Structure formats: structure tokens, C-alpha cells
Sequence to fold (391 residues):
Amino acid sequence: MPSDAPLSLLGGLTAAEFLRDYWQRKPLLIRGAFADFESPLDPDELAGLACEEGVEARLVEEDGPDGPWQVSHGPFDEAIFSELPERDWTLLVQAVDHYVPEVAELLDQFDFLPRWRLDDIMISYAPPGGSVGPHVDQYDVFLIQGLGRRRWQLGGKVSDDAPILTGIDLRILERFDVESDDDWILEPGDMLYLPPGWAHHGVSQSDDCMTYSVGFRAPSADEAITSYADYLGEQLPASRRYGDAGMTPPTDPAELDDDALERMRELILATLDDPTQLAQWFGRVMTQPKYVDQLAPSETPTDVDELVALLQDGEELLRSAGSRFAWRMLDATHATLFADGDGFHCAPALARAVAGNAALDAALLRHEGATELLAALVDAGTLAWPEEEEE
Ligand code: SIN
Ligand code: CO
Fold:
């Protein structure tokens, strides 16, 4: 896709224009982003998913039996859906792209952004009046109207410490002032992009309202520092430590002086400032599966000869639903393929093929090291043969 092509998904903006003017900066409403959008799943199918073990689902009732803005967590018993009132509740199901291939295909539309920034597609269902209250999210989101109508009102950028309602399980803003121009009814196929920290409130206006939230991943400084320090810490020799060879006698032996502080600062900064380690950690972190438990590693190591024979017979390996990939050059002739939180050094063309959308077939075998890499990915559960996936 040339980066200067106008995209109908972005209302005729090019990817470069969208990224320059809107991404992480300000909201954008795109009418008809998806022409003739047909929701790949219906409300009953969404409710069915919310009843399955291992699927992350929440029910938000504005006037719940136990109080306002009551949140209950799945898996749900099917019977609850017939007991709910006719209005003012919302069912939210996370990571539907992991379970419904047609939903996962929507992610391909967002290829103008790094794939490893995408997190998942959450789908909500609501009868009239259903909402999760005015709130802010910490992540960018594209809200696609899938079925029915939803009114979206925006309240501008709010500070991190904006007061929220207390005593409930949702982070609903205590104050929400609608900016008068930012008040729209979205129809199926319309899409609203919101940057992080932007107050918003979406209320269902129809019997069956389904909204698809394409969400992104961005580690906080807090998470990044802790996780990078843990990653480095596992590899550092115990001998690398604070040292003060050549110091001058202390003026006061109890004083922690500037020189001591500077030695510690240098130890920490020199350890952290290692571009190779940073890349290895970053690739692993951004490809961590959303639900580690959903990866199904093989019970027995893959037989490499059998793997080659199957590929040569015309079989194709599949990327497991929810598996995440990225790649980066390691040196002039090698790359690291990052897959589900792990890193594999291999030929750059091989890393690119596995991390991209290409078919995983016998053509891969021409790359040096392909057999071992594919076997390791099958062992990890990142790749699988079609039959195994359906079991
Ligand atoms: C919803 O779909 O009801 C809520 C999505 C959001 O506000 O992030
Ligand atoms: Co939100």
C-alpha cells in the first residue's frame, strides 16, 4: 500500500496525513469508513462468547440490583440475558479477534500502523440507553459502529487526575462537559478515532447496538522500566556492581557524597543504555500474548522431518489466533523474529515472512534455518497445523 494513497477508511486522508494530524493528537469522525459494514457476528453470538470459559467479558448495569453502575464478570450463565431489563446495560467482550476469524480480518485494515501496537478488538452490545458512562481510556481506540446506532459525545482532553465516581468498579468521570460540536449519532460502518486521555460517552440509541473497539498497546513508563530492569537483571553477572576504585578519603564517613551518587548513576545508566538489549526486550514485550494461557504449546517436540514432509505435501502452517509477531534487524545479515514474547535469530527474509501475512508453506524452506524456526514456533503454540487448531 503506497503511503500517499487516500484511504476511504480514513475518510480520504492518506496514512501520512492521519498520522501527522490526528494520531495521538485529536479525535476524527469518519462517516462510512467501512462501506456496507455487516457485523461479522450477531448479538446472540456475542452473548454466547461471553458464556465461554476463558473469554474476558463484563456486564455493566446502570441501575444494577446491587447498586448503580454494577459490573459483573464472565463467564456468564446464558439465563442472565433473559433476566436483564429492556434498557441501560452493556455487555463487553474482549479480544473477539481471537475467536472469530472475520473479526481478526478487520485488523488488516489498520496496516498503516505498526501491527505490534494493536492490542485487540473488544465488542460491546447494548439495548437502548446502554453505556459504560463518560470516561477516559489510556489507549488510542477506533470505535467502529457495527450494528444499530450509538450517540457519541466527547468532552475534550482531561488531566490524569480528573475526579472519578467513587464506590463503583468503573472509572466514570465525575464531571463531563460535552463540547457542543462533538456530538454525533454513528450508524453501521461509521468510525470514531479517539486518542488517549480524551473524555467520551457513547449511549446506545437502538434495540441492538454493537460497537467494535480496535484498541492499542502502549506500555507505561512504570511498566517499561520495571519490565526492562527485570529482563536485564536476569542476564547481568553478579560481578557487575557498584565500585569505587581510586576514590579519595571521605570528608565524613557517614556522608553519601556526590561522587558516590555519580558512580551509582553511571552504573545504572551504562547498564540500561544498551541498544541491543533494549531491542531484544522491546520486541519481546510488544509481542507478549494478551492471554498467555491461551497459547497451547505442543506436548511433544515437533518431528522436523515430518514438518518438512507436510509442507512439501502442500500443507500450510497457520498463525495461532492471538499470536503476535514483530521483527528487527540484528546485524547486516540476521534479524530477530519476535513471536509471542520470545525472540529467534534467523534470516531477515524468513523473519519478515513469518511476521507478515504471507502463507506459511513450503516456499519458506528455501531460507536457511527455516525448519528449526518453524518447529520451535509449533512447539511454542505460535504456529499450528489447521487440524490441530480446530480440535
Ligand atoms: C462501548 O462500546 O460501549 C464502550 C467503548 C468505549 O467507550 O471505550
Ligand atoms: Co472508552
